[in-house]
Amino acid sequence: MEPVYGTVIGLARTVWAVQGLKFTVTGIENLPTEGGAVVAINHTGYMDFTFAGLPAFLQKKGRKVRFMAKKEVFDHKIGGPLMRSLGHIEVDRTDGSASYAEAVEKLKAGELVGVYPEATISRSFEIKEFKSGAARMAIEAGVPIVPHVIWGAQRIWTKGHPKNLGRSNTPISIAVGTPIQPTLSVPDLTALLHARMQHLLLEVQDDYGQHPAGEYWVPHRLGGSAPTLAEAAQWDAQDAAERKAQRAAREAEKQAQKEI
């Protein structure tokens, strides 16, 4: 029994009801009912992780997803203790070895571990290039990867756009794909996961309903005003360069203070 996790799920469902969110969840039968598995999720907005655990909850087997989240979330004075109490995994982007080892340990212990193979939010709302972590940990732990695709979450809160946390009656689709066994090399398994999630995304989008032309949350491919994959990649590169420069400036300042 995990009373804190259960309370958080109850609160989240209450908030979703107040917001009027309308969920469509498919493929729940693809999520293993026992044993470890890497839950691979596409990343379109800040609320993805709150929705990605819904298929496991709807299984009614008491399974919880332990999400890998950036260190900054754990540094928050309220969010940090809560994330730790829920068994989530802190990721330091400058050195992810400790978080990787913790994830593998949880997988070997039979846990579900939630991973964003894209690492950061896709501003194009397409499936962007994957990191290899999901494949590496699945192979090392000897567990399957279960693709999850969420669509509509970017309408609630995403990078570069205002929050829409009031009553919006927004439809949210969550699709769970068939498990991928870790029988390939890391590059091939990563490529297969990307292909499966791309196909799953297209299926979910086809079933979602209207994608109004010009809307910020609609991909360029579907007539929306979201950037293309190439444009979004350029923005991501600029952001990464700025973060690197900021880290270097902080380190230089610390070094200067030591020398005083």
Description:
By secondary structure, the chain is α/β, with parallel strands linked by helices. It has a single domain (3-227), classed as Glycerol-3-phosphate (1)-acyltransferase (3-Layer(aba) Sandwich). It has helices spanning 3-19, 48-52, 54-59, 71-75, 79-85, 97-108, 133-141, 186-208, 229-259; strands at residues 22-26, 37-41, 65-70, 89-91, 112-115, 145-151, 171-176. It has a 7-stranded mixed β-sheet with strand order 1-7-6-2-5-3-4. The longest helix has 31 residues, at 229-259.
What secondary-structure arrangement, pairings included, does this model have?
Blueprint: H1 3-19, E1 22-26, E2 37-41, H2 48-52, H3 54-59, E3 65-70, H4 71-75, H5 79-85, E4 89-91, H6 97-108, E5 112-115, H7 133-141, E6 145-151, E7 171-176, H8 186-208, H9 229-259
Parallel strand pairs: 1-7, 2-5, 2-6, 3-4, 3-5
Antiparallel strand pairs: 6-7
Helix pairs in contact: 6-7, 7-8
